[in-house]
Amino acid sequence: MYETSYNRVSSVTEAATALDAADDPKILAGGQTLIPTMKQRLAAPSELVDIRQVDELHGISMQADGAIRIGATTTHAEVAANADVRAQLPGLASLAGHIGDPHVRYMGTIGGSLANNDPAADYPAAALALGATITTNKGSYSAEEFFTGMFETALQENEIVTAVTFPVAQRTAYAKFPNPASRYAMAGVFVAQTPSGPRVAVTGAGQEGVFRMPAMEAALAENWAADSLGSIQPDAQDMLADIHGSAEYRANLVNVMAKRAVAAA
After folding, report:
1. Burial of 6 (0-12, 13-18, 19+ CB in 10 A)
2. CATH number at residue 177
3. Considering its fold, how many domains does the chain have in total?
4. How far is CA 237 from the centre of its chain?
């Protein structure tokens, strides 16, 4: 076995100190990606810094400007059940309620999902479509700045995600085609009618992770209806291809999921 130390902290400051003092630390929040990765011997951190008991990282609140702030260690199940999220951003609540299975939803956290930026994760699509702000112990990032590639973000070494703030939108919805085994999105599309116009973000399908669909946004600006999307789809050359589906298949899925999301919104 690999030797790993466990450190449960009670504040962000304590967590930052522990991370800086360790040789090769990892943050433990929900552990839904990290623990399986360690079991498979694909990661061997020298120290786990458990932030689950840090009160300031937990909870959901409405801000003075109407935005919704969600603490980094808030679980998917809590996002899905929250009355403010369900009322103001029903697409986000629905997204959270269909992540993985009940075990994942009651353990996995929004901050962990965003920091990991799995190319098939759901939350990145919502963050990008809604123009969310990801706050850390060192500053903040717009969603456009935060996601930089597959499994890559703008986070610096030992930087801790503390919260994500979502502006409210007039309409929101999310539709995904899940892998039947993992429940990860083979193509997931989040649509939002924002004060600045329609925004469409895609996860699960692109070679570089989450991305927006300007052509769909322009079509929806003219007419918010599923039919207005016609045959608009991303270039298959930019799509993922694996044993579960070809690049062409995923490109078509993006179109189908976008139409479903628009109809739901």
Report:
1. exposed
2. 3.30.390.50
3. 2
4. 24
Helix residue ranges per DSSP H, the chain: 12-21, 34-39, 76-81, 83-88, 90-97, 102-107, 110-116, 123-130, 143-146, 214-222, 247-264
Pair type for strands 5-8 and 25-28: unpaired
Domain assignment present for 139:
no
Identify the band that residue 33 occupies on the pLDDT scale cut at 50, 70 and 90.
Answer: confident
Domain range for 258 is 171-264
* Structure tokens, 208: 């570089």
pLDDT (mean) for 129-152: 97
Q: Give tens-digit pLDDT for 83-125.
A: 999 999 999 999 999 999 999 999 999 999 999 999 999 999 9
Which amino acid is residue 101, in one-letter code?
Answer: D
Query: Model pTM greater than 0.90?
Result: yes
Q: Which residues pair with 174 in a beta bridge?
A: 190
Encoding tokens for residue 180?
Answer: 């039947």
